[in-house]
Amino acid sequence: MALLLAEEDLVTADAAESFQASLFARIDGPTPLLNCYALGFPQVARFDGQKLDTEQFVGTIKPGSGRMRDEYVVEGGGTPPAAREDRESPWAGMSGAPLFSGRHLIGVVTKDLSGWQHSRLTALPLERLPELPDFVGICSSYLGNPLSLATLRQTPDLSASFEDRYRAYVIETFGELSIFGLDFSRSEHAQWPLDSAYLSLELVHGEGGEGAPPERGRVVSALRDRQRVLLRGAAGSGKTTLVQWLAVNAARDSFPAQLAHLGGRIPVVLPLRTLVRGAALPTPGDFLSAAGHPLNPPAGWMEAVLTEGRGLLLVDGVDEMPEAGRARTKEWLVKLLAAYPHTAVVVTTRPTAVDDKWLSRKEFTEFQLLPMNRRDVTAFVHRWHTAARSITRRDSERSELNVYEQQLLSTLPRKQDLARLATNPLMCAMICALHRDRRGFLPDSRMKLYGAALTMLLVRRDHERAIGAPEGLMVAEEEQQKILQEIAYWMIRNEIAEAEQDDVIGLIARLLPAMPQVATPEDAPQIFRFLLHRSGLLRAPTARTVDFIHRTFLDYLGARAAVEAQDINMIASHAHEAQWEDIVRMAVGHARDSERAALLTKLMALGDAVSETSHNIMARIHLLAAASLEHATSLDPVVRTEVERRAAALIPPKNEEEANRLADAGPLVLDLLPGPEGLSDVEAAAVVRTAQLIGGDHALQVLRGYADHPDLGVRAELASAWDLFHTTTYAELILARMKTAGVTISVNSAEQLAALYLVEYAADVTFHGDLSPEQIASAVRAVRAERVTVFSNGRLKSLRVFSEMGISLTGLSLVSCREINDYSGVPDLGLEELSLLDWRSSDALFGLGTVTNLRTLTLDGTNDASEPGMLAVPASVPALPSVVQLSLVLWVERDIDAGRLREIFPNLRLLVLNLKSDRLFTVDLSALTWVPDVVVPTIGESVRLVPPPEEDLS
């Protein structure tokens, strides 16, 4: 086998960008793999005196043949070429031809198999490449990552054809996002390509240990190697958008390297608001039909996909199930995973709809979608206006959009009330649309924002599109809102988020006798079509169903209908239910003064009546009442005082959950938050979290009082809030006054990098993104950092940028810095700990050979990056006698053993292995008796471990 290296680029950089990512695979199982093909220059295809021409050999791989020789046998599908007179093979010249199955390279042709009349060729499987260490090292260096092989399990031809159609359907169906406010000129402009519109938001997981902050990260890094995830997020936070992004990338097998464990899977989007309409939640064979997908799979196809571990279930919207049905949903999921344990699953829900650790016994990792920070908001505003400019026909409008974008980016940081609304994609899109629609003037409250958005959709939309009455009807805004809010309230009462169209038409028919100026009951179908096509608020997920474009509008309109129906007691009676929280708050906003006072009084009475054993419910109701005050334009002072008094009794918050709920009450809470005196460390950290979530100048002054707090947990919360406030001001007032020992300072932008100089000392600093390596090194020296982590920096090529500045570090972690090709600066840094995660293996690692202080090394990868039979230590790693602790994060892809580990790490005292796999492999550690301590904290279900003799692996 050979890898051909050109001395110069063979294509331009622009042409290279259009190339699809290289995909590699192995074959598993005995079923023949159809329609494989190789492309080469065989003798039989030559013409005009031996001129070369290409030939595509198409055939079927028979995995049961050639087993003893460990090679693929490919049987051609047509008539084989005639034998040559010189008895040479007509396929001569074909050796070295790449062998593909679809887009996956699976091997390289080696010879014409004798005895089969030139109808069969053999090929070297790609999975044998680890036997060739030089090849692997060069391949890793030039491809940028270790060779990662997907697994192909051939299905019957009918299923294979269906999978191609299904993947195309998923890409087409979920490959576009509805961008709020972009549909004024033509309805098709409401859709925008997912790749252009998708914004990767930040997730947080866990409570952190020993005062450490919870684990945070963008989607790609947070979901890395995680097969089961429960994702919590508020309305409009981007949960469904993330589901779409996962579905599309799975369908086209285009995940970034960090999510390679999800690559090639079959995505199935299961919106629970649709599934709940059935009598029971579906079994796998009914997944597609129950979710409203129109394709009919071959019998047994979905069961086979899940059994083979190729499925990715995306279960969206647990909160849209009736509360009584959520336990049934949990049981359904648990049984599914018991039957199909290798299925990957992502479940989404609103934060309080299910209990903490709801699915923890099935090894789900819980994440919370964090509010958008300033950088996220800036990026979203830019993308929204870019989308708007792309569908605008006139140059003058594009120029206006340029002005609006700059105006909005300037306004948001200065108007805290408005900035506090811009915390999720839906609200940001509303703000962008209304800012454009109102030519730079914006509402200053959430209720006004929703009201203005409805007016924009119901009235301005058709006016700007110059549409008259295509349905033969003209329905005024007030009348549209009346019908829509009755539909919304009916759906809320019936605990459904998606309704049958016939039921909605029947409801409209019952409303029309009281609205004769609109139409007669017989015209209900036309009214429904008008609202569906013209209002911009309804959509049809399937041919038979209807829902609102977002749950927020359902809640807003339903709350208004409930208030108009004077259902104050019913609204209050549901206040303890997470699904009603927004409805209650909006009802306070819609209500008149007397109704508002009555509703809040009822809420207080209900909270007071809760027994002491249900303190969480009491706190939720009282805080919900306090949070609703921001929507109370006027209120009886006595009622307001009583609401605030009960909220004050819940202050200080006792933990992170209470802090999150308290922050929902808004800026009024800031006046009630105490200083650090007399608080426990946990309470102080919760107060800091409350203030940072509320934000604004007042919050900054609250945080300033905690800047010199001694507790690590409090200081970690303060450090994590930098993104939420003005960069320089926060650095001056908070970070510069903090004791930073034990705290990680995260630098996420060039502005923060420049402001880091205001901090006198920062022992542990993390840098995110493509920041200037020279400026990073200069800042590290300025703050006298001892431990440095660099995430996802494509500009960092050499570690000499640190050593040439005379920097000395105790620890260095490099995560997703895949352009580094020079590690020769490491020995001069004096490192004791080095971590390389999602890195690019290369011969440059030989630069580590002269290190003398390095005691701890952490690496990740697959065993394909190593020499045959040994753990995943790249062949380019030199002998490191100073290392006594080695941690390996491994995705196991073949049977392996300890290999020559002792030659590389002769003085190893502790070996920590994190092992995972989606196939059954053996990891033989029986030769590791020379290592005093071998720890295997996580073992994938498919990894068979052979431990060292008489060793107790924990």
Characterise the protein shown here.
- This protein is α/β, with parallel strands linked by helices and 954 residues long.
- The chain has 33 helices and 32 strands.
- The strands form six sheets. The chain has a nine-stranded parallel β-sheet.
- Helix 11 crosses helix 14, helix 17 crosses helix 18 and helix 22 runs antiparallel to helix 23.
- It is globular and about 100 Å long.
- The relative contact order is 0.06.
- About 3% of the residues have low confidence.
Q: Structural class given helices, strands, pairing?
A: alpha/beta
Low-confidence stretches: 183-190, 208-213, 461-470, 862-869
Kindly report how far apart the N and C termini lie: 42 Å
Mean pLDDT: 83
Q: Can you count the beta strands?
A: 32
Shape: globular
Helicity range of the residues? 25-40%
- Largest beta sheet, briefly? 9 strands, parallel
Within the largest sheet, what's the order of strands? Answer: 21-22-23-24-25-26-27-29-31
* Cα gyration radius (Å): 31 Å
Number of helical segments with 4 or more residues: 33
Task: Give the percentage of residues in beta strands.
Answer: 15-25%
